[in-house]
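Can you give me the bound-state structure? Components:
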Amino acid sequence: AQSVTQLGSHVSVSEGALVLLRCNYSSSVPPYLFWYVQYPNQGLQLLLKYTSAATLVKGINGFEAEFKKSETSFHLTKPSAHMSDAAEYFCAVSGLATDSWGKLQFGAGTQVVVTP
Amino acid sequence: DTEVTQTPKHLVMGMTNKKSLKCEQHMGHRAMYWYKQKAKKPPELMFVYSYEKLSINESVPSRFSPECPNSSLLNLHLHALQPEDSALYLCASSQDGQDDYGYTFGSGTRLTVV
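Here's the bound-state model for the whole set.
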């Protein structure tokens, strides 16, 4: 079965500082990996995705993530945090494993707080 | 149109009521999903429809009954719910069930069972 683990349920960053959210995956076959953001009382918005093309993936709002197979990681970064980045972030996996077909599995989420 | 539209946005229902949640997309996606999200938790998959057929039921209680009338519509019929069923119900769609384009989510229906 495929799964993702997000390290850190809460991250506090200063405005203008680097944002780093950690995600590690477990999969028996190459996975598809996603980062989603959820603002309060809203649905989920796709930030970026990895689907076995380039290992460095650029997304919306200045975010990017790097797929590292040797480390089974897909960490999300943004060079300079804005106040508007305060939200819940979810790492998710889907893929070709038979028991994971059609299923998007989420990590526990990381709440990002941005301080002035 | 690149949206998934969910109605209603908020719903309060009694434990003896019958209500339905509606989800609509016009992106030509052939897979549609229902997720349940409790506060401070990640979404949990409930049902997957692929080409209008139920392909995954994640052992959801029978008081939740999904329906896919056509490729653009997905309903979730609710009956005899419990207070612990109060949650945000999210609908999503993708091009098909095995898809690397990502999933598009609606804004959700906030359900409160009293």
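A couple of observations. Chain B touches chain A through 28 residues (CB under 8 Å). The CA atoms of residues 53 and 65 of chain B lie 13 Å apart.
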